[in-house]
Amino acid sequence: MEDNSQEVESTEVVVEREPAQLSIREKLKQELQSTNNTQADETSAEEPTQQPEQAAPVEQVVQQERPMLVPPSDMNSAEKDAFLNPTAQNAHVLQGYLNRRAYETRMQYDRKMQEVNQLYKQNQTVYDTIKQYEEEYARQGISIGDIARRSIAWDKAMKNNPYQTALEWLQSYNINVNDLTERAQQHYQQPPQYLTKEEAERIAIEKYQSIADEQDRKALELYNERVVEYFMNSKPLFKDAETASQLEAEMAPVVQALNNTGRYSSAEEVLETAYNYVVNGNPTFSGIMQKMTTGPVVQQQQAVAQKARQAAKSISGSAGSGTPRVHAQTIRDNLRRRFHGE
C-alpha cells in the first residue's frame, strides 16, 4: 500500500493556475515602487553627464581671481588710461608707447655695447701682450697676474725712491753697478746720428699731410651729419624713433653699397636712392607711406566736395531764400523770356 501511494504521488499532475488578481491597493503599491526604481536608474545614468556642468563655476572663480595689471611707471597719463581701458580708438597710444620703449631699449643696449667696445680697445694692447707671453711664464710657474703686480710695484717704487729701487732691481738680476757704468760710458762715447736735410723735409711733409687729411676727414664727417639730419627731418617716416631706427638699419647697407659704386656725386642723392629702394621694397614701410599720403588727399577731396556743395546750395537758393527775380523792361521782353523758358 505504501508503494502505491508513492507512485500516485509521483505521477500527480500539477495544474498551473493563473495568479489571482491583485487588489487596487497592491497595484498602486507596485506602480509606485517601479516608478521610484526608474527615477533612481535615470539619476545614476545622468550623473556622469552633470560633472562638466559642476566644473563651470570653478572656471568662473579662476577668472574672477585673475589679478589686475598695474600700468608701467614710465607711462604718461594718456598711456595709463589706454592701458587700463584698451579700446580700438586708443590703440595708437599703446602702439606709440611700445615703439618708444623698444627704441629706448635698443639705444641702451647700443650704448652699453659701445662702452664694452671702448674698454676692449683700451685694454686690447695689454691683453695681446699678456696672451703673447702667457705660455712662456706659465712654463716657469709664474702667472701673468704676478708679473703685472710686480711691474706695477717696481714702477711705484721707482717713483718713490728711484736710486735705491734701481740698485735692488739690478741686484735681483745679478748685475754689478760698476759693469753697468762702464758699458754706459762706452755707449755715450759713440758719435750721435743726425738726420739729413732730405729726411727732415720728408718727415715734416708727412706730418703736414697727415694733419691735413685729418682735417678733411672731420670736415666731411660734419657735412655728412648735417646732410643726414636735414634728410631725416624732411621724411615723415623718421618722426617716430622706433620706425626711424628700423629704417636706418635697412638703409645702412644700401648706402654703403651705393657709395662703393662711385656713380653718385652727392650724399643727398645716395640717401634719396637708398630711401626709395628700402621703402618701396618693404611692404611695412610702403603701407605706412600709402596711408600717410592718401589721408591728406582724401581730406582735400572732402574739402573740395564740401565747397562745391555749398556753392551749389548758394546758387539754387536755400530754404526760405526765395526764387531769383528777373527784371523785364517791357511786356514783349517778359513774354519772350517766358516763351524761351527763362
Could you characterize what this model shows?
- α3 packs across α4 (91-139).
- By secondary structure, the protein is an all-alpha fold.
- The longest helix is centred in the middle third of the chain and has 49 residues, at 91-139.
- The protein has helices at residues 2-10, 24-64, 77-84, 91-139, 144-160, 162-172, 177-188, 197-234, 241-261, 267-281, 283-316, 331-339.
- It contains 12 helices and no strands.
- The chain has a domain at 77-106.
- It is flat, with a radius of gyration of 52 Å.
What ranges have pLDDT less than 50 throughout 5 or more consecutive residues?
Answer: 1-9
Q: Strand content of the residues, in percent?
A: under 5%
Major sheet size, sense and barrel closure: none
Shape: flat
Mean pLDDT: 76
Number of contiguous helices: 12
Helix content: over 70%
Q: Would you tell me the structural class of the helices and strands?
A: mainly alpha
Order of helices and strands: HHHHHHHHHHHH
Would you report the number of β strands? 0
Terminal CA distance? 149 Å
Alpha carbon gyration radius: 52 Å
